[in-house]
Amino acid sequence: MKRLQLLVTVFGILLSLNTFANSLVSIKGKVVDASTQAPLAGATLYISDLKTSTSTNTNGEFTFNNVPSKGKFLLEVRYLGYKTTSKLIDLATQQEITFALEPSVIESAEVVITGTPFSANNKTNSLAVVSVSRDKLAQSAATNLVDAIAKIPGVAQVTTGGAISKPTIRGLGYNRVLTMVDGAREEGQQWGDEHGVQVDQFAAARIEVLKGPASLLYGSDALGGVINIIDDLVPAEGTYNGNFTTNYNTNGGLTGSSLMMQGNTKGFVYRGRVSYKNAYGFGYKGHVVPNAGFNEINTSAMLGLNKTWGYTHLSLSRFATNIGLVEEGPDADGNYLDEEGNVISKSDAKSRSLNLPFQNINHYRAALNSNVLLGGGQLKSTFAFQRNIRKEFEETKEEPGLNLGLNSYTYDVKYSFANNGVWEPTIGLQGMYQTNRNSGEEFLVPDYNSNNIGAFAYLKRNFENGAINAGVRYDYKKIDGKDLFEDHGDHQDQVFSAFNNSFSNFTGSLGFAFDIAKNLNLKGNIGSGFRAPNIAELGANGKHEGTFRYEIGNSNLKQETSLQFDLGLTYQAENITLGLNAYSNKIYDYIYLSNLNDETIVNTDHDGNTETLPVYRFLQTDANLIGGEASVDFHLIKALHFENTFAYVKGTNKATNSPLPFIPAASLNNEIRFEPNLKGLNDSFIKVGLTNVFKQDRIDAFETETDGYTLFDAGIGTSFKTKKGKLNVWITGQNLTNKLYYNHLSRYKLANIYNPGRNVSFGISVPL
């Protein structure tokens, strides 16, 4: 509570900066067609580093009010049917700006990438980054946010039913992939197999996926990459608007709705959102998985100022969910049985009431994001507090078995020095303090305190046709595990023994991105990564409900370090785009789970029931991951898109020359999308697609092979213009042939539970 009061106090101090603000400044300009010079009405313009946006009127004119009187910022312009473009503008000149957009049948990816100290054009960014827009997220018919991005080449998900998905990037997941929300790293016991991302999927305006080591800018746990979830930019000054989105999925009966209202009154900005989801168990070919449903309610609010000195925004949110866990798969006849051995009917399995066991998770987040223009540069900061309360109910709905409370305090302060757009130097300081406490009757990880700090320096040199960048960073992390005894009345058993560990490391990166010929961009990066062992790897001792195993940690584990080489080539012409990426990632002291010599343990619960479980211990080895991604997008005619992507990764344990566990299978995605120009309608589309996943037979000793499969998808949608904006409607279908299949990274595969069958999703988004 004291930390939250500190956030509010800092927010009040930043509000007082308005007293010292310069006089208001307005920047005006025009957006026109490059060939005809005709004005383009409804084009959208963004300055990400100022969190401000506007749009053009019927004459193609735009105005940014209440912006700083000086400074250089990247301004992005988007308009459907034209190439997205960006330009570095100097606000001190205050001269009218004209953007001449060129028509294009190519759907350009998001131009501006915000996951670097300065927002940058992706062509000058050496990291492999993919951005997914809100429309694509909504039309994916996903059951959660990670599910919505799982078709990005190089991205996969470890799933536990429809509610829980953990991202993996190029074969690395769990604490090797960092999720950023409201500018702060999410901390929600992400070491667990069935611990998903605690984010409202409706709140994401877009998602940026950084592939490869991002430890330089993000620190420990970004060794494999970053999922950067970006909220809406605030509306233009003087506007007040909102949106209501709702969808329904036939598989699982998922209903999801979200209401958002926001406004901007003379630079005072505000937003509120409420979202709700509810589903019963997913199904496949005549069967519904009992107790696989979930419900979720999310609330969030943002208050802030956009002034001539910069901006400051205070975001508050609560993510609350209940998720059923499946303990037993079907019998030999494919039927699900209750505790008495009776067949659970399909209608009973569709009950939205959760039975034991189930999770109850509450995640509270407060984040203060600011960008203060200081000394000609930008001082960006994020101070955040998160409280994650994770309960698992196994024997009774009144008292949880596992009850973990995690408090995380994070800070991220960066100063980007004044520059003329050529040299872009930045220094930064980041850190986190955590406390974790057990309050239940069962224990998997010990109580602990953790403190880590990192400092970095980053330099980018821009040229006419590209850029080079370099950086260095130092991290230090200290973690103290506590003794814990289980009271049995007449005696006490020690569950955890205290330990005190510290880790430190230097990391660095060097990269480039250049247009080596017309329409041909080459980028490369050499980066080192760093990850300290998480609390489960160091101190686990117990069965985690739904994991089908008993885990034992090792407090003597070393930190992981990595060295990755990444090379990418992009060709973009009038009717075709091509993309190729290849990478090689060497990880030293890679931590992994293994069941040595078929070791087992007899586990006894509080009711005296016993079960024999396999024992998995955390080991270390050197590992190699090599792979690549490819994409090609054909536009034979303006309205017809033929998009294709391929991804492959191979992981090898160097000590045994055997495959690493939990490596996703190779995949090939094909989609034909027809976008007709219909009178009175906008953004109309008809699409059909194939998801081809290959057989995964490179497996660790405790894994089983997974056969390949092909899924057929389709969709149709359009939008209507209203006085308030565009009203979008869509219908999409997944696995329309109702294919029976296992995803290699599905945890329910262990219980012979198939992935979801046919699903049709209906959605509508209404402007308010």
Describe it.
The chain is mainly beta and 768 residues long. The chain folds into two domains: 80 residues, Carboxypeptidase-like, regulatory domain (Immunoglobulin-like), CATH 2.60.40; 648 residues, Maltoporin, Chain A (Beta Barrel), CATH 2.40.170. The protein contains six helices and 47 strands. The protein has a 22-stranded antiparallel barrel. Strands 10-16-17-14-15 form a five-stranded mixed beta sheet. The chain is globular. The two termini are 35 Å apart.
Tell me the layout of helices and strands.
Blueprint: H1 2-16, E1 25-33, E2 44-47, E3 52-55, E4 61-67, E5 72-78, E6 85-90, E7 97-101, E8 112-113, E9 120-121, E10 128-133, H2 134-139, H3 145-148, E11 155-160, E12 164-169, E13 172-173, E14 177-181, E15 184-185, E16 206-211, H4 215-218, E17 225-230, E18 240-249, E19 255-265, E20 268-279, E21 283-284, E22 287-288, E23 294-307, E24 310-324, H5 346-349, E25 358-374, E26 377-393, E27 402-416, E28 423-438, E29 448-463, E30 466-481, E31 484-487, E32 492-496, E33 499-517, E34 520-531, H6 535-539, E35 541-543, E36 550-552, E37 560-572, E38 576-594, E39 600-604, E40 610-637, E41 640-653, E42 658-659, E43 667-674, E44 682-693, E45 709-722, E46 725-734, E47 759-767
Membrane topology: Multi-pass membrane protein
Protein name: Iron complex outermembrane recepter protein
Pfam family, one: CarbopepD_reg_2
